[in-house]
Predict the structure.
Amino acid sequence: MRLAEHQYSSVSAIRGPLLFLDRVFAARLGELVRIETPDGRTLSGEVLKITGEQVLIQVFGGTHGLDAHNTTVSFSDAVMRAPLGTGTLGRVFDGSFKPRDGLPMFIPEFRMPVLGAPINPVARAHPVEFIETGFSTIDGLNTLVKGQKLPIFSCSGLPAREMTDQLLRQARLTDGGPFVLVFVAIGLTHFEYQFYQQTLEHMQSRFVAFINLADDPVVERLLAPRLALTVAEDLAFRQEMDVLVIITDMTNYCDALREISTAREELPGRRGYPGHMYSDLASLYERAGRIHDRKGSVTLLPTVTMPEDDITHPIPDLTGYITEGQIVLSRELHQKGIYPPVDVLPSLSRLMQYGIGKGQTRKDHRDLANHLYRTYAKGCDLRRLEAVVGRDGMLAEDRKALDFADRFESDFVHQGNTRRTMDDTLDTAKKLLDEFREVSR
Amino acid sequence: MNGKVTSISGATVCVDLPDLKIGDRVFVGSSRLTGEVVRLDGHIATVQVFEDNRGLGIGEPVTTAHGPLTVRLGPGLLGGVFDGLQRPLHRLQQDSGDFITSGQDPFPLDLNRTWDFSSKCKPGVTLKTGEAFGKVREGHIDHLLLTPQEGTLAQLNTGKLQIENPAAIFEDGQALPGWHSWPVRRARPISCKLPPTTPLITGQRCLDFLFPMLKGGVSIVPGGFGTGKTVLEQTIAKFADVDVVVYVGCGERGNEMAGLLDEFAELTDPRTDRPLMERTIIVANTSNMPVAARESSIFTAVTMAEYYRDMGLDVLFLADSLSRWAEALREISAALEEMPGEDGYPTYIGSRLSGFIERAGVVQTISGVTGSLSMILAVSPPGADFSEPVTQACLRVAGALYMLDTQLAHRRHFPAINWTQSYSLYSDTAMAHFTEQHAEWSRLQSRCRDILQHEEALREVAEVVGMEGLQDRDRLLMRTAEKIRLEFLCQNSFTDDAYATPQRTLKQIAALVSEHERLSEALKDGVLLDDLLKEDTDASS
């Protein structure tokens, strides 16, 4: 503990979002600093690196208008902490935890470091209880369970926004416990924000939102999800609620990471993204989970837009290595007018098997899902053959499988804006399989 | 003597403390974070900190542990769950709660437990470093107590033993407690290496039959995400016919570790009927735990594996995944501002990796018994591109490649082992062993390979002309190949089918191949395939 506040005006260099300060006494790694600009504004920043008496500071909120002589930096002697409490519910914040909804700041009950601490692996409880999203392709074939992290891999131009919006409105627990949505938007355009605003207004106090707009400071894109997850952990593990965190769009997050990393002159890795992106993403995604003998849970549903529709691009690739499965959207299905355009073949929920079946969803769930998947995969395989030999040249049974694939897409995958309960989903599946009994068994 | 912190960049910290050696363990800052000296420049040492060091300040004190980073070895390791620095995670949870905090250092072994120590050694015997001087019973195994240094025995305290008390005393007065420390980065001493000869039965049909593994061998399992690396590693951990399994979750998912712990706690070892955890050591350093500890985790784990090998046991070391270890090395190297090689990995990745992998093998131990350490290592190539440096560096030293295929995984063919591109250099040795038990083994294997290879070629034809356009001979082959794929190569890890004995494996493939041969003979006699198949269906119903 320092007895007096340390204040310096010895800025030696400013580079991008970074500020170099000389002749600093006893700085701490990750220490929060307050920066006063020559024109009287106040910004905050964080200590990234200390070499002897020189300190490198990352400035939240952009360095425009800063200079070397009239800028003062005060050190707080503490790492960055997020204000927490029930006051966060129903509120919209920006990427530095300032209210964006025009209401005054809530009174924090206490504060926690925003970077969190890893859950001890032996304290983790394995995810088993499912969350209903209202989408048949997710609930039926790629079931989401509490404590899971399941990303949506989208492509530009696909209706990921509509899906996210619907998830915000539809997601629920079937056992009706306390359930909260934490919505994190990173690099959101004003146009999209207006779109989500209406949804948030209808959600009353069931949500907490962190909105970083496309023209907000880039550093806050890195901060917003961490603030949100700190709030989510508090709601889940202290206030015993089940929390679903929806993040859109992780591609903007990774691009911000690349931007900051380049400014720090770090070695670029694949496609210019920093080599530590895997660990960085893991420090976010791994905050999802359940803990033995505690009631709440943090479930993560991030959206990733695959640049050039490429699933091997570093962002979806590293995400896929950390998360427990993925929901993949398909341009082809979208062009056929199918909504949500989920391609179930490359989609996967690794934890689904623990969350379905008797006592969880329904006894016949696993069988139905396996049959749907297998028959649809067969139909899709045959589509390639059909392209070569034509439908007339095929066996009757194979033609039937082709019909099944079409009907599966139009009846099961496609559901428009309607919400399907788990029972609706499984009934639709059963009806379809009964109709095509001869090819599906 | 106290030094102090002079600069901090992430987990890389410079300290001013004289007389340090490379590899020395130091305690950094007032919360005593564990670090390792990686570079020396005058009296300034660069230290890699293994714990979260946010809040660490310039000028905070630094002390040395007067020795390298070590693991504590002794009875009671089996059944343990540790992090990358061998901190016992259960005790850590009792001490500091559900979230991991920095600056904790609980002792990894249970000091209060009492063991029955017995010994055949007599006072006056001179022991070499690593030689056994007695044993205790740990679960299903005889746990040999090994001396960490040489000396002549003066006294043995057989009977009830708590491991912190001396089990024996050397003539020079040096006490040998039930446990000792060993530097993680130094391989334990052996008499000599022996060539591997005995197959390691994994219970996976595809592996045991087509790509057998040997005890003391090394195989790598590369695969993109969703290809089932983790499930395969965990399934092998459950069923492999070895005495001890060391499983390292290196930079992987926390929920997977939780699943593994839950599952292993309930399962029993099919060979001994004892709880599976009794033969297992788990090292869990998940992806959100500190990166430097991830780098050290595989060394911590392999040293414990070597320790059990030195008791004359068969030990299997499983790591998931080596790529995360390599990435940790890359992050550390970048922080040290070293010159990067391919894809940003340091140029010494190849030598560091081979140095580690060479710790596997069949050995004659110092005590004169034979032990083996086998490794099955998962690799996660970015974008499932196998030309990347980590996969390639592994390939140069590994004896078997189990390549996992994204296409097969999409078709839900698990384990998704690509049978055309995987290989095992141990095949011939294993075959010599198998053929002793079953003369047919080698013929069946080459026949099975033949059929699968032919199918590949035929499938291209079939995609153009359709199945109907193929000759009966080829259609039969396609049919058999499909059966081999679906009934033999596919193996569901979540049912009773998860484990297949070699006998059952052989019986199954023999049946499939002989049916194929019977039908091809009949075809030669001019019978139509459809009629043959119809006969078969009628006969079976």
About this structure: The mean pLDDT of chain B is 92. Chain B touches chain A through 68 residues (CB under 8 Å). The domain at 3-68 of chain B is CATH 2.40.30.20 (Elongation Factor Tu (Ef-tu); domain 3).
